[in-house]
Amino acid sequence: NLFPLISTGEPREQIFRMTGPGADQDPKGLFTIDMNSGAVSVSRSVDREATDSYQLEVSTTDYSGNLIEGPQVFRINVIDQNDNRPIFKEPQYTGEVLEGSPTGTTVMTMTAFDADDPNTDNAVLRYNIVKQSPDKPSPNMFYIDAERGDIVTVIAPTLLDRETLPTTTYELEIMAKDMAGSEVGLTGTTTATITITDKNDHAPEFTHPLFEAHVYEGSTGVVVNLTVDDRDDPATAAWRAMYSIISGDPTQSFEIQTNPDNNEGMLSVVKPLNYEASEFLSLLIKVENEDPLVPDVGYGPSSTATVHVRVEDINEGPVFFPDPLIVTRMENIPVGSFVASLNATDPDILEKQSIRYAVLQDPAGWLSVNPVRGTVNTSASLDRESPYVYDNKYTAVFIATDNGTPPATGTGTLIIHLEDYNDNAPYVLPSVARVCEDTYDVTVAVVGGWDKDLPPNAAPFKIELGTQPDLDKTWNVTRVNSTHSQIRLLRSLKKDNYQLPLLITDSGVPPLSNNTEVKVQVCICNKNRMHCSSAHSHRARFLVPLATLLLTLLCKYIATNSHNNRKLWFFVCFLFSPHPVKLSSFSLLCHSFFVPLVLCFSV
C-alpha cells in the first residue's frame, strides 16, 4: 500500500480510477488503486535500472461513470538499491611500458561501469590490484589509482630492465568495487596484461674477434657466417644487425647481408678474387643495429671483428686479348692467306704453362689456326655474300687450352669485316613482259639491274641490247636512271613469245657483264583482256626441225647398236627426262621428244 491519493473530507459516492504506464498500459498491472479508498499498491517487484519513474493519472467518477474530480497527475519514483555489480568494458586489457621508464609512468587506464544510480554510492567505484603474476622482483611493481583507474609503474627504472627481469609479461588481476569501496560493496574483476617493451640499450657484439675464411680464386658466394650476440628483443629493430666492411676491400669484392632468421652476417665474394694478385686479405667488419642506441650506450670494441680470407689457387683458363679481335680482309683472298694472330695469355703467372689453339666455331669452314703460334689463315675462299655473313661481318670462335692439371680452357672471338670484291655479275628484273600485238613505238617494260655486290661494284648499271643482228630494228633500250632502263618496241609483232637478249654491265673494276634475256609475250588484246601464247618461246620453234633430224639419226644408231650402247641409251633417257628445274627453251624441246625416243628404243 503506497498512499491514498484523493480525499474529500466526507464520504461521497465515488469510484477511484487510475490510468498510464504501469496501470492500464504496459507494463500493465504493476500498480493498482483501491476504487473505494484510492490507495495505490505495487503488485510485483520494480527495477530501477529498467524504469526509474512512472507517471500516472487518477480521477474519480460516480457510479454512472460521470467525472467528479481529476484527472490528477502524480509520479512514482523507484528508489535505487545496490543490486548491480561493476562490469569492466573489456574482458581483458593489454598495455606496454618501455623498459627503464621512470617511476610513475602511466601504462593504461582501467574503466568499469555500474548500472546503479550514479547519484548514490551504489555506483561509486574504487579500483584495486588484487594480484600480480609473477611477483618478482617485487609484488608491487605497479599501482592503480583507486578513483581514476590509472595503472602506473612503481618499480625503479634500473630494475625495470627487460633483459634482467624474470619475464617480459606481467599479469594483474584488477578489482572494481562499488559503494565507494566499502566492505558491503559489490565487486567485478578483469585481467590486465602488461608487456615490458625493449629499447636499444645493448649493442651487438661479435662472438669472436677473429674469423677465418678460405675461397678459391675465380669463385663467388658466401665464404663465412659472422655470429653476434645482442641481448635486446629478437626480431626488433633494436636486435636486427647491420654489417659493414670498414677496411680491407678496396676493390669492393665482398658484401655482407644479414640472415633474417639468426641475425648472422653472411660474408660473400661478389667479384672473383685473383690468387696471383693477392693470396691473403684482411677485412675489418663493424656491426650496428637498425635502431640507434640509447644516449648512454655506445658501440664498443666487441662490435668490430677481423676476417682473414685466404685465397686458394686454381688452374685458370687462358684469356684472349683483345676479345673480340676485329680485323678487315678482302673477300676472295687466296686460300692460305693470313687473317689474324690470336693472343691468349695464362693468368697463372706463377706457373709456366704452354697454350695450344684450336677452332671452336667456324660456321662456313673458312679458317684454320696454327695450334702453337695462334695464327689464323684461310682454308677456303671468303665470300661476303655468304649466308654466314651478317652485316659484312663473319664471326668465328677459337679455344685456347693450357697444359695445367687439370687443363683449363678459354675462348675468344674473331670478327672479320669483309670488304667487297666484284665477284657477282649483275642481273635484270623483271624477266617477263607483255605487250599487245599490232602496237609499236611503246614502252614494253622498265627493267632494273640488281647485284649482290656493294657499291662501287654494283650500280650504276649499263643495260643494252644483245649482239644478235637486227635487234635494234625491233627493240630499243634507253637509260632511265643509274639502275633502270626502259625497253621499247619499235615495230608491231604478231602474237607469240619472244626472247629479247640483253647485256648488263656493273661499275666494278674490272666490270662484270651478264648476257641475259627478257621474255616478251606479244598477246591479242580485246576488251581489257590479253590472250597470250603458251610458255614456249618464239626461238624454240626454229629448233624443232633440227631436233627432229638429230633424234632420227640417234634412233637409227641405238637400234643398230642396242647391245653395246646401253650406257648411251640411259644417258639419252636422263637427258630428255622431265626435270623439276624451270624449263629452258631447249629442255622444253627435249621433253616434247621424250615419247618418240621411247618408241625408237622399243623398235
TrEMBL record:
<dbReference type="GO" id="GO:0007498">
    <property type="term" value="P:mesoderm development"/>
</dbReference>
<dbReference type="GO" id="GO:0005509">
    <property type="term" value="F:calcium ion binding"/>
</dbReference>
<feature type="domain" description="Cadherin">
    <location>
        <begin position="223"/>
        <end position="320"/>
    </location>
</feature>
<dbReference type="GO" id="GO:0060027">
    <property type="term" value="P:convergent extension involved in gastrulation"/>
</dbReference>
<feature type="domain" description="Cadherin">
    <location>
        <begin position="321"/>
        <end position="428"/>
    </location>
</feature>
<dbReference type="GO" id="GO:0055113">
    <property type="term" value="P:epiboly involved in gastrulation with mouth forming second"/>
</dbReference>
<dbReference type="InterPro" id="IPR015919">
    <property type="entry name" value="Cadherin-like_sf"/>
</dbReference>
<dbReference type="GO" id="GO:0016342">
    <property type="term" value="C:catenin complex"/>
</dbReference>
<dbReference type="GO" id="GO:0007043">
    <property type="term" value="P:cell-cell junction assembly"/>
</dbReference>
<keyword id="KW-0165">Cleavage on pair of basic residues</keyword>
<dbReference type="GO" id="GO:0044331">
    <property type="term" value="P:cell-cell adhesion mediated by cadherin"/>
</dbReference>
<dbReference type="GO" id="GO:0008013">
    <property type="term" value="F:beta-catenin binding"/>
</dbReference>
<dbReference type="GO" id="GO:0034332">
    <property type="term" value="P:adherens junction organization"/>
</dbReference>
<keyword id="KW-0472">Membrane</keyword>
<dbReference type="GO" id="GO:0001764">
    <property type="term" value="P:neuron migration"/>
</dbReference>
<dbReference type="GO" id="GO:0016339">
    <property type="term" value="P:calcium-dependent cell-cell adhesion via plasma membrane cell adhesion molecules"/>
</dbReference>
<dbReference type="GO" id="GO:0007156">
    <property type="term" value="P:homophilic cell adhesion via plasma membrane adhesion molecules"/>
</dbReference>
<keyword id="KW-0732">Signal</keyword>
<keyword id="KW-1003">Cell membrane</keyword>
<dbReference type="GO" id="GO:0042074">
    <property type="term" value="P:cell migration involved in gastrulation"/>
</dbReference>
<dbReference type="InterPro" id="IPR020894">
    <property type="entry name" value="Cadherin_CS"/>
</dbReference>
<keyword id="KW-0106">Calcium</keyword>
<feature type="domain" description="Cadherin">
    <location>
        <begin position="16"/>
        <end position="88"/>
    </location>
</feature>
<dbReference type="GO" id="GO:0000902">
    <property type="term" value="P:cell morphogenesis"/>
</dbReference>
<dbReference type="GO" id="GO:0045296">
    <property type="term" value="F:cadherin binding"/>
</dbReference>
<keyword id="KW-0325">Glycoprotein</keyword>
<dbReference type="GO" id="GO:0030010">
    <property type="term" value="P:establishment of cell polarity"/>
</dbReference>
<keyword id="KW-0479">Metal-binding</keyword>
<dbReference type="InterPro" id="IPR039808">
    <property type="entry name" value="Cadherin"/>
</dbReference>
<keyword id="KW-0963">Cytoplasm</keyword>
<feature type="domain" description="Cadherin">
    <location>
        <begin position="451"/>
        <end position="547"/>
    </location>
</feature>
<dbReference type="InterPro" id="IPR002126">
    <property type="entry name" value="Cadherin-like_dom"/>
</dbReference>
<dbReference type="GO" id="GO:0005912">
    <property type="term" value="C:adherens junction"/>
</dbReference>
<protein>
    <recommendedName>
        <fullName>Cadherin domain-containing protein</fullName>
    </recommendedName>
</protein>
<feature type="domain" description="Cadherin">
    <location>
        <begin position="89"/>
        <end position="206"/>
    </location>
</feature>
<keyword id="KW-0130">Cell adhesion</keyword>
<dbReference type="GO" id="GO:0007398">
    <property type="term" value="P:ectoderm development"/>
</dbReference>
<dbReference type="GO" id="GO:0005737">
    <property type="term" value="C:cytoplasm"/>
</dbReference>
<dbReference type="GO" id="GO:0001841">
    <property type="term" value="P:neural tube formation"/>
</dbReference>
<dbReference type="Pfam" id="PF00028">
    <property type="entry name" value="Cadherin"/>
</dbReference>
<keyword id="KW-0677">Repeat</keyword>
